[in-house]
Amino acid sequence: MAEYIIKNGFVVDPTQGINCEKMDVAVKDGKIVDASEVMGAKVIDASGKLVMAGAVDVHSHSAGPKVNVGRNLRPEEKLNCYNPAKGAKRMEAGFSVPTAISSGYIFSRMGYGFAMEAAMPPLYARHTHEEMRDTPIVDEAALPVFGNNWFVMEYLKNNEIENTASYISWLLKVTKGYGIKCVNPGGSEAWGWGMNCLTIDDPVPFFDVTPKQIITGLIEANEYLRLPHSMHLHTNSLGEPGNYQITIDSLKCAEGIKADNDFGREQVLHHTHLQFHSYGGDSYSSKSFESRSKEVMDYFNSTDNLTFDIGQVTLDETTTMTADGPFEYHLSHMNNLKWVNKDVELETCAGVVPFIYNPNSFIGVAQWAIGLELALQCKDMTKCYLTSDAPNAGPLCRYPRVMKWLMSLKSRDEILDACKYGESVRRQCYIGEFDRELTLYELAQMNRQGAARMLGLSNMFGSLKPGMEGDVVVYPLNPESDLDDGEKIEHAFGNAEYFIKKGELIINDSEIISNGSKRTFWVNAGKELTPQVERDVSERFKKYYTVTRNNYEVKEHHYVPNEYMIEVNAA
Amino acid sequence: MSTVELTLKQQPELYLETEKITPDSFAGKSADEIAALDVYEGNLTHKLGDFFTISGTPGQTAQDTVIKVKGDLLRIKWIGAKMTAGKVIVDSNTDMYTGAFMEGGEIIVNGNTGHFTALGMKGGNIHIKGSAGNYLGAAYRGDWRGMMGGVLRVDGDAGSDVGTFMRGGEIIIGGNTDVHVGTHQEGGKIVVKGNAKSKVGGQMVKGEIIVFGTIDVMMPGFAHRDNIDLEVDGAKATFKRFEGDLGERHPKSKGKVIYGQLYIKA
């Protein structure tokens, strides 16, 4: 395998406490090694440029049935947004729901080495894995959804943590999943009855279990299984004005629970796209709607077992897609555009609706402000991650723009000054109070050190320490002279000049020259089905399902040809 | 105004995508520079000069530029697409997407146009002396933004799906249309001087459709309200006024529900 030495770049690596120091980084046999260990390595000159470890995305939607439905729903996106094949690089197309091939290239250009597909419906695990397999370069894993699963709800009603854990362990194994995702706990199931769970105390119809029980139970099952990642929560009442109290109530479910794992993970609950959950007021009008990011962050900053990602609105035309079926239904009735609701047997549901976050509207810019406020108020940046819940709040390719806004007060003011409701947003939100500009070090704490740790992958990703995976990215950004210019920041983080993934040169001189050898990560929690769960599963499938258990099984050789299994040692 | 003349010298084997034939991309260029513009045939990229002889000079701006396109253009797509100013005169029949997403200026076609003419048109004028194909002034597949503005006049007939998802502007058809007129229409005006077949105004929310001839089969979602006199495109007549599509959502304006208006000559 080729050896590389990246010379004279400005290295930022919070794990080693390195902050913009000029030094060399070497890669050998797919791993980072000490610069003295390579002889005759290919030299990459990074002088005047920024060198970081490959980034880690904790939450986006780039593979799976609802993403594919999104692609089918939006042929118009591909009319003006495409990029022909060139050399090894294959054709790309699409903007908010790019093709699988395109997603891999977008991640690579932004220097991402690992990405988490945030919602995998268990029955469509095969489809999700096929798309991940076809997403080149970036290593991926997927989180199956459990928050509306009939078995989970039955067991958690009676607080049967061991049975829940046994079922989860089985489903992770058959679907080749990575961890526990929970979307609108109970609410998506209630949607099957045309209802919803708006607070965490609303009982789920028929099951008579509350979202609070589901959240707490899944956290406990997660720690019981000692999984690398924590419970990953999209709580109830997403996007509803006044929902911030529900958010705080949900976060409080984790109180008193300690992380138990061998992977260096510290949190027991990850709250995703927190921006959508930090609203005050009682309607979307500029008179009522307001930010409650301060209240949410005051609580968050007082805890030590939580993490969150921002879910930043990027003010684009995008495509929303979530396993929160009722939310998508309501959204489609707000903008009257085409929409899809998708039901997946008894485990989850999903919806897809195109959406325009208008940079000239009050509500679009207020949502934009709230996302940034969350990050700007965070005290420990290793617990806060940059996402756009892609493509829900904005397309994946806009991450660099979000970095610009976080790092440049001037760029934030430009948005507020250009919007005719800018003054209302400054009044109703907290954005105007912050002049904080995140540093490169803090940025690396978010999507490298912190993100890798929260996924339980800090022994592989997020740092340039010798022994880590050989993921290195060189951005055309000079930390000594370019940081005053927001446009340069945005351009640099979206157009890596060099990207080495697992020791292989993927981007050379800003051109994609290889499709890499992507891996799919999954977690083997090791627990066998308890006799009771075994009996329940067999009976329920006979009685209620139109498919058998064999329809779930993801066979490695076809669906996960390049797997990376993480084995969990039970306590 | 300066004129550039393009004459087809070589028929493409497949179909040629020539979205560069616009005053905007010609303005300020020499004949050689124009000949060097890219055109696409399948997955191959060629030069405009491979297919057309180019004479004359364009103006310095799009506004001062007139383009005359001559020859049998039945395999040429996207003439005048996205143009913002100036004038394009097409000598014969064209293939699809003529004047698509046009924003301003003028296109005159002395023949027929293919499907998707004036797709998503935003402004300007198009006059087709012959007939137009399907999806005239409609939205691109999947999009909800059809024709938004401008005036589109067809002297002959139009195919099916005229003005699907139309949101503004005016379409005037001298002859007849096939099925589906103004489907999902949310604004703008469609005038059919001849007859329309069926499914006129299906799922229409706002806007107007005026038919001088007959409609074979009316949509069930339209209700007859009254008869009124209208002057349409210089012609005065009495029309039966229908409102619909009643099966669709309808917005309120100043406390009044807004319906799509369908007029048929009484």
Automatic annotation (TrEMBL), chain A:
Q: Which GO terms describe its molecular function?
A: formylmethanofuran dehydrogenase activity; hydrolase activity, acting on carbon-nitrogen (but not peptide) bonds
Gene3D superfamilies per the record?
A: Urease, subunit C, domain 1
The answer, when asked if Nucleotidyltransferase is one of the entry's keywords, is no
Q: Which UniProt keywords apply?
A: Oxidoreductase
The protein's superkingdom reads Archaea
Residue ranges of domain Amidohydrolase in the record: 42-479
Record bears the keyword Oxidoreductase: yes
Stated EC number for the protein is: 1.2.7.12
Any one Pfam family here would be: Amidohydro_3
PANTHER family registered for this protein in UniProt:
COLLAPSIN RESPONSE MEDIATOR PROTEIN, HYDRANTOINASE/DIHYDROPYRIMIDINASE FAMILY MEMBER
What is the protein name for this chain? Formylmethanofuran dehydrogenase subunit A
UniProtKB/TrEMBL annotation, chain B:
Q: What is its EC number?
A: 1.2.7.12
* This protein's pathway: One-carbon metabolism; methanogenesis from CO(2); 5,10-methenyl-5,6,7,8-tetrahydromethanopterin from CO(2): step 1/3
> Keyword S-adenosyl-L-methionine on this protein?
no
What UniProt keywords are attached to this protein's entry? Oxidoreductase
Instruction: State one molecular function term (GO).
Output: formylmethanofuran dehydrogenase activity
What reaction(s) does this enzyme catalyze? N-formylmethanofuran + 2 oxidized [2Fe-2S]-[ferredoxin] + H2O = methanofuran + 2 reduced [2Fe-2S]-[ferredoxin] + CO2 + H(+)
Q: Which GO terms describe its biological process?
A: methanogenesis
What is the enzyme's class at the highest EC level? oxidoreductase
Q: What is the protein name stated in its UniProt record?
A: formylmethanofuran dehydrogenase
Q: Give the species.
A: Methanoplanus endosymbiosus
